Amino acid sequence: MAQPGINIYTELGQNNISQGLYFKSAAMGDLNFGNNILSSGIQTSLDKNNKILVSGYTINASRYLILQRMVVELQGFFTMTELSEIIHTTNWGILMKIRRNHFEMAIGSNFKTYSFSEQAQKAYNIMNDAVSINETFNIIYLFRYNVKPSYNKWNIGWAITDIDYFQFNQETNPIFKLNGYLRFSNKFSVNADLSYELAGFTNLAFGYFGLNLKTGLIWNF
Amino acid sequence: MEFLTNKKIVLTFITVLFFESCSKDEGYFSLNETVDQRVEQSLDWDSKNPERELVINSDEYTIFCMADSHVGTTGNLDRFFSIAKESDAAAVIMAGDLCSGRLSDYDVLENHMPSGDSLPRFMVAGNHDLHFAGWNEYFSRFGSSTYFFTVRTPAGSDIFICLDTSEGTLGKIQFSWLSNVLKNMRQNYRQCIVITHNNFFRVKQAESTSLLPEEISALAELFTTNRVEMVITGHDHRKDDRLFGITRYIVMDPLEDKADNAGFFVLKIRKGEIKYNFGSFE
Fold this sequence. Notes:
Chain A is mainly β. Chain A is built from one helix and twelve strands, in the order βββββββαβββββ.
């Protein structure tokens, strides 16, 4: 029997291009059936200056496999994110995840496309061959360490990654995270993560780009 | 036991790296200022010096552009200046990673630069120019890395905006400055060209990094809405030329002596329109 779940979070952050603080909220729904998970979500930007209602959506499909006596999650994903009023990015790719008691690791590849909206194409007379730019075979990764084993009712940990719910950085622009959760029951937990983004990391001349805090809840029905 | 030994080695390496990066000594990782601090210094310099304008008595002019000379050695740099002078260039643009950041390499670079009278030059810093606390050397010798200059011809004037992306981001102050310059000045000029070191799009695999996707999108929007015709960058060491929206994004080959693909970029204004070609030493 399929088991549904919902993950809702709010994000408060600031970065070098934001005009003050930005505020986003997202809801993700998932459906577990057997060894498979289907999930989908939308993100909305709640800034007062923002004219975009839905700033992102994502669709993911996962299957759990046993490889070398290890449980491996294989995920395919598609995400669209409105990064500005006239430009959006799409990211699609695959991700392989492994979870151990204290560790979570993921590696995969994504294809990113920056595109102008149809409205912008008309407004600025953009030629067909200049509408989008593709970045292919980007490496995506996650390495997370949690202080307590994964079955514990609470946890704190840290992670280095270039991916987030609706965000895919280049592999050379990692995000550093502090995260934690508190599980009230098998069905209900709250979580938080603090993300710190550096620019120019692999140029070895790097500086602050942004900081954000996400707090959310997960409810499995 | 072996695990613990390995862990100790890794921890020691990370600790050394951390303290080295925080050090005020002139080590490789020594960056003594943030991008916002550098931009403040640059804008202060701009306010104390006259606006830079080239006056050309012809409707046509040519500017030679280069990046990534990584001095040390100066074979290609000397040849580049020589070709630019022979071609009667109005100016040269030097888009970062001009040297290693070492004091001795700044000395070599400065000694090989033509005088401003014989060949006007417009420079921005790159990430390598900051190493070994190199920004102090850059700033004291060459001045601002965030500014604009204009080229006035009888038929019209063009604006060139030079940005500091040596840290992989414009930072808050420079982003705001750029927005204001484009908003308040762009309409007064015929062509608008942006010069900076860091390339924008990661269209080829490389260990060096480009700007973050959010910043790329914000800048591409700014360039589109303000009709920026061209963005000239280096950093990636492999030339690239693509149109995104109404803005052409150029990545130049490196000028450094050891590069097999050493080259430069020639920007020509003809009848008010941009023409260009990539140049090499072959």
